[in-house]
Amino acid sequence: MIDPPIDRRLPLIGRPMGTVQVIGAGVWVGSHYGWWLLALGLCAVVPACMLETIAFLINPAGRSSPLFALYTLLLIAFYGLLAIGFAATALGCAQLFEPRRGTGHPSGLMVYGELLDRVPELLLLGLLGGVVAIPLTIALPVGVYFWGRWSLAWWVALYEGLGPVASLKRSWELTEGAWWHACLVQLANAVLSMVVLMAVYFILSLVLTPIRNAGEARPLLAIDSFVSQLTTIAAFPIGAAITVMLYWDLRARHEAVDIGDGSGELTTS
To answer: Taking phi first (over 0 means left), then psi (-120 to 50 degrees means alpha), and beta for anything else, what does residue 231 get?
Structure first.
């Protein structure tokens, strides 16, 4: 499977960074390793889109159709593979700084192997997050604070392999005294990712417009869906890199971590 290009110019993290510095470092990492991270995610996204295309082509007329069960299973597999592709991109970006198992720079097989081990924890955290999100959405001012404190929970579960409750606690610890900083970085990250997404979608739309105009109804839906997923995964590396830099920045504020020159060596004190 694909391996990343070796670049020892990864941003050094030895002291806390400001909001602009975190975003700038994330953009640097996302742009320099974007093709590898994109290819890493596409290993799961492309098969997912193929399954969705098949689902569109056999789309049954109603639930009573004998094909409805197959249609439902294909869509479940599609969303599962899609989530795995995005998670692999995020985990691969994190492992550029802290490769696992002492193997040096991460490989695609290593990333997907570790990711599959963490699927149960991520699913449980997603269920817990869905339950907690309901009251926090109702109590919006308080919800913003809690969102800032727990904004790294999913990423912590992905990077460190913690369970759902432990991930919430870990995120709470990392954002102690800097929840506003985490909120600002995440907000700026969302805006920047949206701009990149719109730009990529515009370019792909220009290229695929003739195909769309010549397509039939169901193939057209499949093409639109594929373009949509490709656009999202193409915009994801920079967003994932910014969050990774935020994660290490918050660790530097509390644990005095020091990432060396990108060689995969990391020390904590």
So the answer is: alpha
Torsion of CA 257, 7, 190, 248, to 10 degrees: 0
d(C-alpha 152, C-alpha 174), whole Å? 8
Residue pair 5/46 in contact by the 8 Å Cβ criterion: no
Determine whether 90 is exposed, middle or buried from the number of CB atoms within 10 Å of its CB (0-12, 13-18, 19+). Answer: buried
Could you give the C-alpha distances from 248 to 1, 16, 36, 68, 171, in angstroms and in order?
27, 9, 21, 46, 12
Residues 6+ apart with CB under 8 A from 234: 38, 196, 197, 200
- List, for residues 3-53, the tens digit of each pLDDT value: 555 444 455 555 678 888 888 888 888 888 888 888 888 888 888 888 887
The answer to whether the beta carbons of residues 201 and 231 sit under 8 Å apart is: yes
Residue 97 structure tokens: 């700084």
What is the pTM (predicted TM-score) of this model?
0.77
Q: Dmax of the chain from CA atoms?
A: 62
Q: Answer yes or no: are the C-beta atoms of 43 and 89 closer than 8 Å.
A: no
Please say whether the dihedral angle defined by the alpha carbons of residues 38, 39, 44 and 47, taken in this order, is positive or negative. Answer: positive
Number of other residues whose CB lies within 10 A of the CB of residue 160: 15
Encode pLDDT of 177-207 as tens digits.
Answer: 888 888 899 889 888 888 887 887 777 777 6
Helix/strand/coil for 105: coil
What single letter denotes the amino acid at residue 148? Answer: G
CA distance 32 to 203: 21
> In the block, which residue shows the tokens 């809690």?
146
Query: By three-state DSSP, how is residue 230 classified?
Result: helix
Cα angle value 98/100/106 (rounded, 5°):
75
